Amino acid sequence: MTPNKYLWLIPMFPLAGAAINGFFGRHSSRKAITAVALTLCGASFVLALIIAAGFSSASAPYYFDLAHWLRSGDFHADFSFYLDQLSLVMMLVVTGVGFLIHIYSVGYMWEDDGYYRFMSYLNLFMFFMLTLVLAKNYLMMFIGWEGVGLASYLLIGFWFTKDSAASAGKKAFIVNRIGDFGFLIALFLLIKHFGTLDYPALFAKIQPLSPETAGVGLLTSIGILLMVGAAGKSAQIPLYVWLPDAMEGPTPVSALIHAATMVTAGVYMVARSHVIFERAPSAMTVVAIIGTLTALFAATIGIAQTDIKKVLAYSTVSQLGYMFMACGVGAFSAGIFHLMTHAFFKGLLFLAAGSVIHGIGGEQDMRKMGGLRTYMPWTFATMGIATLAIAGIPPLAGFWSKDEILARAFDENWVYWLIGLITAFITSFYMFRLMYMTFGGDYRGGSAAHDVTHQSADAHAMHDKHATDDTAHGGHGDHSHGEPHESPWVMLGPLVILALLSLFGGFVGIGDRFEHFLDPVFRAPVEPGLVASSREAASKTIEYTLMCISVTVAGFGWFLAWLLYSSKPQLPARIAERMGNLYKAVANKYYVDELYAVLFVNPLIDGSATVLWHGIDQGVIDATVNGSADAARRVSDEVRHMQSGNLRSYAGWVAAGGALVVAYMVWMGIR
Amino acid sequence: MVPLSYYLVLSGILFGCGVLGFLIKRNIITIFMSIELMLNGVNLSFVAFAAQWHALSGQIFVFFVMVVAAAEAAVGLAIIIAVYRTRETLNVDQVNLLKL
Fold first, then answer.
1. Shortest alpha-carbon distance between residue B59 and chain A (Å)
2. If DSSP states are collapsed to H, E and C, what string results for A199-229?
3. 3-class DSSP state for residue A69?
């Protein structure tokens, strides 16, 4: 009996946890809630480890049909689970990082009134995310896909009494709807033309098709529509706008959902659909271009942000762009590799940022931090490791995966590589800027001035309206903060573990081992010689040269950040002044939100108000209902006079009626 | 033998008197008697037709009408007495509590 039989239990454990805490959490003690949430989440992690230990490539892909779901004619979609190398990696990342973040949340959210709600939502998220990665057909994936969107909405708007949080949640949900629309259409096309959504059956039908090199064919359309879905979920251009706002949620949520797992669902989906994309070169190009542009675009915005979480949010968007770039050039395994290492170091960055925010009483503005390395050494050390990792300094995790992507991008087209390289430079710059502003220099917060300063409007002048009151974050603004303090061990533990993973997690990629592990998924029946040979063509010298260049560039970014934010801290303001409008545009995120407001949001609201609301709803529907009621009232107003209470008038009516009937009969008789 | 039309005309006159009385009189007792008059007008046409066509059912129907009229008279008189006791009048124009 293989442990694979219990695969379906992995998503079910967190679901049980969500149900128990959701229904009974309100009246349970925090200890009980913690026990339920952690035990069930941990159980699925342990089970995932057991399954991973028993996993052998020979038996993959393994699938297991749990129950029937939809059966209609030839089409059927079942509750069935699928395990191959790809979903194994995803499953381990999700349960592992998810479990660590659950532990962290215990410390971070302990004093929040909605603690049970938070834990229940987190467990619910785990359930949907695991459904997404373990699904055997696209429809099951779609359940998870929508479910993580729901969990994300609930958690972004966790502090729903705050207006900005509630609207950020709505924004995330609505923007995701656009992407989901594309995804759904792609699924309909698949059903229409292939009659199934089961991965094995579907891919077996698509395998024999030849690539659509000329024009836009069926597979190209499907690919592009899938990419629209992925762009919504994974915050790519043009649908990335929700992710920075999503930072309104509690920090563990940002780490779990908006950095490590949910936002990577799009990458997973594209990688899972590689059979389709490989036969649609134009769709692949679209993916690569979107990814590359997003990587650069988001990174440049990240330079000018002053909110610690917003920097990380744009960094996430940018790193997701890398993953799509990898998928777009056909390096799916490199994309998944980066997905994994990114989950480690970006999850760590967010958790460390949460620890910083926690330690100084809910402040998120980096200009009010500084000097924290002496107050919170552990947070500083772990966040430093994560920064080195994301900047691509060897031998940390980010270096291996990013380098893999850049090398593969160079094989495809040096333009991708160049933009990727520039992005790497910017990434390194803004990350070290964040480090120097947060941990370097002296503490600028000042406990006495804290209450006054965090209200000041100028501190948020560069934020959009959603961010104006984000100092209320953390839910612990009520207990007064003196000195910044280090976080408790329940929060530091996950940091340390993730730091170790960020340090050593990249080694699985040495010598293409990670790639070879995923080979059966991405390579199997596609003429193996062809792809492999082109891979060999890129000689090792070029690869090492590229490696050196990217490390140099990352080092240069570090140096620049040190120069501007540590050595000569008065310089950035001067440069910003010099740049003038360009700086303002970057700081305002290129006014994309404003542009969308003018182009889409306002016309939609206006159209809804004038046409749908006043025109159709009030003019037609309400008018019909009110009109018929009005007519009935007016008619009865007249008719009621017949009921006079006068007996003889009743008799008169009866007699008149009788006479009428008789007259009618007589008239009919004569005729 | 008296022709059928005589009976029918008499029956119509009786019924018409009943209707007229019902409409114009104000005393409940008189109205009640007008109803009886209408019933009897109908009864007359029943028996006239029955005699004309030698059909027994018309005759029997008259018995039924009489029985129902007797029962109705009992209930009706009871109501009239009850009305008189509470309102001290038999004028229907003053018994109009249901008026709007």
1. 24
2. HHHHHHHHCCCCCCCCCCCHHHHHHHHHHHH
3. strand
Per-residue pLDDT at B36 exceeds 80? yes
Taking alpha carbons only, the member of A577, A587, A591, A569 closest to residue A463 is: A587
Tell me the C-alpha distance between A451 and A645, whole Å. 77
Terminal C-alpha separation, chain A: 94
Rounded Cα gap, residues A111 and A178, in angstroms: 36
Q: Which of A239, A248, A257 is nearest to A163 (CA)?
A: A248
Do B100 and A655 count as a contact with CB atoms less than 8 A apart? no
Residue B78, Cβ density class (10 Å: 0-12 exposed, 13-18 middle, ≥19 buried): exposed
- Give A-chain residues touching B30 at CB under 8 angstroms: none
Distance (Å) of CA A623 to CA A289, A290, A614, A615: 51, 48, 11, 10
Q: What pLDDT score does A481 carry? A: 57
Report the gap between the CA of A162 and the closest CA in chain B (Å): 56
Contact B52, B4 (CB under 8 A): yes
∠ CA(A652), CA(A654), CA(A657), 5° rounding?
105
Extract the residue ranges of chain A whose pLDDT is less than 50: 1, 448-480, 525-534
Distance CA A334, CA A512 (A): 9
The residue of chain B nearest to residue A650, with distances taken between CA atoms, is B23
Encoded amino acid at A21, one letter: N
Residues of chain A contacting B97 with CB distance shorter than 8 Å = 645
As a whole number, mean pLDDT of residues B5-16 equals 94
Residue A413: the pLDDT is 85
Tell me the pLDDT tens digit for each residue of A654-666. 889 999 999 999 9
Q: At what angle do helices A265-272 and A308-328 cross, to 10 degrees?
A: 0
Q: Tell me, what's the pLDDT at A150?
A: 93
The pLDDT of residue A270 = 93
Question: Could you tell me if A169 and A154 are in contact, meaning their C-beta atoms sit under 8 angstroms apart?
Answer: yes
Query: What pLDDT, on a 0 to 100 scale, did the predictor assign at position A60?
Result: 67
Tokens of A671: 């005729």
Predicted local confidence at residue A43, as pLDDT: 93
Cis status, amide bond into A528, omega within 30 of 0: no
Question: Of the candidates A166, A131, A134, A164, which has an alpha carbon nearest to the alpha carbon of residue A147?
Answer: A131
**Residue-level pLDDT at A482:** 65
| Distance from C-alpha of A317 to C-alpha of A296, rounded to nearest angstrom | 10
From chain B, the residues in CB contact with A655 under 8 A are 19, 22-23
Distance, in Å, from the CA atom of A292 to the CA atom of A362, rounded to the nearest integer, reads 34
10 Å CB burial of residue A67 (0-12, 13-18, 19+) is: exposed
The per-residue pLDDT for A479 is 45
CB atoms within 10 A of CB A625: 10
Check if CATH label 1.10.760.10 holds for domain B4-87. no
A263 three-state secondary structure:
helix
Residues A75, A24 contacting (CB under 8 angstroms): no
